[in-house]
Design brief:
Layout (H helix, E strand, L loop, with lengths): L5 E5 L6 E7 L10 H11 L7 H4 L4 E5 L1 E2 L2 E2 L4 E6 L34 H8 L5 H7 L4 H16 L4 E9 L2 E2 L8 H9 L7 H16 L6 E8 L15 H10 L4 E6 L18 E2 L8 E2 L8 E2 L2 E2 L4 E7 L10 E4 L4 E4 L10 H24 L4 H24 L1
Antiparallel strand pairs: 1-2, 2-6, 3-6, 4-5, 7-8, 7-9, 9-15, 10-15, 11-12, 13-14, 16-17
Helix pairs in contact: 1-5, 1-9, 3-4, 5-9, 8-9
Length: about 400
């Protein structure tokens, strides 16, 4: 389907480049290419990042799908160069190496918590370098680039998506007022992406302590989307439910182990009267007169957006590569040996929040394309206007009755 937004990525952590192909952008969408690089820079930041981020300076090269700053309605292709590639050119060569080449980077000792061992079993690789190169979170740079393009589509409809870190190493930030612009300014100025400055300092100290011990730490981030219309998603099929799609997209980020919408697992501990959001009417809003004093549902009821802000929360495990490695075994002789150590981060939760933001953006943009269709941005906006008019007429009819 021409208006079905979708994307694919390719590339290895130490290969020549990362590649992404995005389909379904409406023709005529203005695209500021420089904003893609800005989003990539946000992903590379964060307290506790490793040396790889000092090597890479990610920039996206868009090679198709845009002409003179506007989408053509055809597939958009982009690439992100891996600047570390010259140091890995022989190791990661697409063609067979020279007969005299001997790999110095073969991985034969799997890391607990990584895809090394399971991937070797699945694909039949003896050298687990073949697994970890794609399983690496390096691939998320391509996802962030796609999210940067899709963000510009959502902005055409005044939809905003932001994210923040709410927990690192068990240190939880105080709840900030998400409608407060100063809160989000503090988040963007924070190297741990936390709006609670006191908690942010304690998070940095926890990261430093983990680094001293050769350990790593995880945490949680929250993505917040506002300005969405009611009616995105569906109750019809499980794969059409907006919450299931958001959960799958965020869960697909490396190292994410749980995803929550709204209250999340806390709904299990409360009675229904303290979980479900009461419905009231604000007659001054002719387009969508329904208001909620709470948003425990996280903006989604029955798999469909209900007009409230969408709130997605995710938990990231600590990075599995430790400078003080856990016990493992060497393959194929199965002898005990410390796990393989690869260059890595101590904490990547701030970066993961940017990646989570991009994946939520993509799912919401995809749902918008499905709901409002059209081959061009003009068609999509016309359908958007018609939809709101229909809702307004519906409420007016209710008043007349």
């Amino acid at each position: 389907m021409a208006n079905r937004l979708n994307f694919y990525t390719a590339g290895e952590s130490h290969g020549r480049q990362l590649t992404a192909v995005l389909t379904g952008l409406p023709a005529g969408l203005p695209v500021d290419v420089s904003r893609v690089d800005s989003e990539l820079a946000r992903r590379q930041g964060g307290y506790g990042r490793g040396r790889r981020m000092q090597i890479e300076g990610d920039c996206a090269l868009i090679t198709s799908g845009i002409r003179h700053g506007r989408a053509l309605g055809t597939p958009l292709a982009l690439s992100i160069e891996n600047r570390d590639w010259p140091n890995w050119e022989q190791e990661m060569s697409v063609t067979p190496p020279a007969p005299e080449f001997v790999s110095q980077r073969t991985v034969s000792v799997p890391r607990p918590g990584h895809a090394d061992l399971a991937g070797a079993a699945k694909f039949g690789h003896r050298d687990m370098r073949n697994v970890l190169e794609r399983a690496s979170a390096r691939q998320t740079a391509a996802s962030v680039a796609v999210g940067a393009i899709c963000r510009q589509l959502l902005e055409q409809f005044d939809i905003e998506v932001v994210s923040c870190v709410v927990n690192i190493a068990g240190i939880r930030a105080a709840g900030g007022l998400r409608s407060d612009e100063q809160f989000w300014t503090r988040v963007e100025n924070s190297d741990v992406r936390c709006g609670d400055e006191e908690a942010a300092q304690r998070m940095r100290e926890a990261i430093d302590e983990a680094a001293r011990k050769g350990d790593t730490v995880g945490g949680e981030f929250e993505v917040y989307a506002r300005g969405l219309p009611p009616g995105l998603g569906s109750t019809a099929m499980w794969q059409e439910r907006l919450d299931s799609r958001l959960a799958a997209a965020v869960m697909g980020i490396p190292a994410i182990k749980s995803v929550e919408i709204g209250l999340g697992k806390a709904v299990a501990d409360r009675p229904g009267s303290q979980v479900h959001d009461p419905i009231a009417v604000d007659r001054s809003n002719r387009r969508w007169p329904f208001v909620r004093p709470t948003n425990n549902a996280g903006g989604i009821e029955g798999g469909i957006s209900n007009g409230e802000p969408i709130v997605v929360r995710a938990a990231m495990k600590p990075i599995p590569t430790l400078t003080q490695p856990l016990p493992s075994v060497k393959l194929p002789d199965l002898e005990p040996q410390p796990a393989h150590a690869e260059r890595s981060d101590v904490c990547a939760v701030p970066a993961a929040s940017v990646v989570g933001e991009a994946m939520v953006i993509f799912v919401l943009a995809q749902a918008m394309r499905e709901k409002f269709g059209g081959d061009s941005l003009e068609d999509m906006k016309a359908a958007w206007t018609s939809y709101w008019q229909r809702l307004q007429e519906l409420w007016q009819q209710g008043e007349e009755v």
